[in-house]
TrEMBL record:
GO terms for molecular function: oxidoreductase activity. This is Enoyl reductase (ER) domain-containing protein. CDD domains: MDR1. Residues 6-311 form the Enoyl reductase (ER) domain. InterPro entries: ADH-like_N, Chloroplast_QOR, ER, GroES-like_sf, NAD(P)-bd_dom_sf. Pfam families: ADH_N, ADH_zinc_N_2.
Length: 313
């Protein structure tokens, strides 16, 4: 039965998912929307995925209310976080079935909303920061790095993780978010609309050993002059031009490499532990009740969210 409708989204009643033997049934408490979810709606991934109608969103946290016959790690009543398979998704719903293999325990003291922000954005940020050699055990030597779009979902996690790795962090964002980005750890925050910000110039004038690019509008031609002699761009949102640059710079001193999310559940556990220890936080742009999920979707589509957009059931 239809409850509400927007241009692209409508509420319907469907059966509670049935479980396969290796799955758990999660009563969703919070879900976070990612830019990739919106790309599905825009049809940018067709004809490969998905088959419409489609229930979007991959990042969920909630309580297990049923387990499959082969499930060993969880029991009914456990609080968990799951990173659902992208082409199946299903997280923007009251209940979702998730494989045991893509689900991890939610530590005590970590809210469902904070946890739901982590799977895609947090893991992508972690992979990017690991790609520049970051160590979190105190043994790493910090580098001079730049993080673009630092007030976004991925960027806000990347700034915090980079500081945990002892890097000197310059970050770009809009003027309204300069204070927030400094508060989460950036040594210097640049308004990307100013001449200095557009040129990626920090106050010291130093070139960057690494640039972590989290915006699909970043260009290799703009990054290259800001790199040190053997500097590298790590791009988590590559456009076509940067894909080409990643090939053309393979044998150059200055390089661009792309990152495609591949980290697993052990890394998600690591991030959750950091949140539990208050070393990492989820920057939440807004929280929306399930009945107003269309508003959350529109906010995410706007590309102007500060941190994560959360839907709470």
């Amino acid at each position: 039965m239809e409850k509400n409708q927007s241009v692209f989204m409508q509420y319907v009643e469907i059966p509670v998912p049935s479980l396969k033997k290796g799955e758990v049934l999660i009563k969703v408490e919070a879900a976070s929307i990612n830019p990739a979810d919106c790309r599905i709606q825009k049809g940018l991934l067709r004809p490969f995925v998905p088959k419409f109608p489609f229930i979007p969103v991959t990042d969920v946290a909630g309580e297990i209310i049923e387990i499959g016959s082969a499930v060993q790690q969880f029991k009914v009543g456990d609080k968990v976080v799951s990173k659902l398979i992208f082409w199946k998704a299903g997280g923007l719903a009251e209940y979702v079935a998730a494989s045991e293999s893509i689900t991890v325990p939610l530590p005590a003291g970590v809210s469902s909303a904070d946890a739901a922000g982590l799977p895609v954005a947090g893991l992508t940020a972690l992979q990017a920061v690991k790609a520049i050699g970051t160590k979190f055990d105190g043994t790493g030597v910090g580098s001079n790095i730049l993080i673009t779009a630092a007030s976004g979902g991925i960027g806000s996690y990347a700034v915090q993780l980079a500081k945990l790795g002892n890097h000197n962090v310059t970050a770009t964002c809009g003027a309204r978010n300069l204070e927030l980005v400094a508060d989460i750890g950036a040594d210097e925050a640049l308004d990307y609309k100013t001449p200095e910000g557009a040129a990626l110039k920090n106050s010291s004038g130093k070139k960057y050993d690494y640039i972590v690019n989290t915006t699909n509008g970043g260009k290799w031609s703009a990054f290259k002059p800001s790199l040190s002699s053997h500097g590298r761009v790590v791009d988590v949102a590559p456009n076509f031009g940067n894909f080409v640059a990643s090939i053309l710079t393979l044998f150059s001193k200055k390089k661009l490499s792309t990152v495609i999310l591949s980290l697993g559940m052990e890394d998600l556990r690591f991030l959750l532990e950091l949140v539990k220890e208050r070393k990492l936080k989820t920057v939440i742009d807004s929280r929306h009740p399930f009945e107003k999920a269309a508003d959350a979707w529109e906010k995410s589509l706007s590309s102007h969210a500060t941190g994560k957009v959360i839907v709470e059931m």
